[in-house]
TrEMBL record:
The keyword Signal is assigned to this record: yes
Matching PROSITE patterns: START
Gene3D superfamilies referenced in this protein's UniProt entry, alphabetically: 3.30.530.20
One Pfam family recorded for the sequence: START
Name of the featured protein: Lipid-binding protein
Species lineage: Bacteria, Pseudomonadati, Pseudomonadota, Gammaproteobacteria, Pseudomonadales
Organism: Marinobacter lutaoensis
Amino acid sequence: MRNPRAHGFTGWAAPAFGLICALLVLALASATAQAEALPDEQAADWHLRKETDGIRVYTTEQPGSRFEAFKAVATLDVPIENLMAVMIDPTSCVAWVHNCVESQAFGPGDFHDRFAYSVNDMPWPVADRDYVLHIRTRGERDTGVIVMDLNATPDQRPNTQGRTRVDRSDTRYRFTPEGDRTRMVWIQHTDPNGTLPGWLVNALVIDIPVRSMQSLERVARQPRYQGFRLVWDDHGRLVDVAGPGS
């Protein structure tokens, strides 16, 4: 955990800043087992809240929650193969997800259905968060679209002392190839289970997807993620992402 005094936050602002950041990072770094509960991507009640650097962030109310869902949309200037190379790398969370300091695969699984464990460093005095993700990936050659659902399964791995396990959030990534670029749609709803008012979290969380998508584009351009290809079966279903020379 970091001490906010090192960043110039003191007095009452220090714990408030730490708690706000913790909840916002928690909202982006976790996912639940109810991805189907996310708002429809094409629903009419999405409201544009921010547009910058080609990234548009929308929000909508989520029934039964004080916290809004968000949808972030952008066309990233990298091929879909690069992005999928990042996504299948269990350590890539550290490079592009805000405050992720540890990430690893664990347990049984394959390309379509696997598990990952990650840790997010929280600003002092909030405890670090860890989370266990059930990641499901599917794609169709006819459309080129690839969809990932990330679902928190907190009981899949024993708790770690000193860390708070994340258990509530829904996330979906949709990738659509557009030549050498990729359209990404990121939909998420999280209830941080905190004491902050919903209006405050809703006002701040719209900035987080922008920074994350900018980082993802930069990371996907790195040499280590070049030269990958998508592998399809005889039925046109995505079965793997193969590395250079494979």
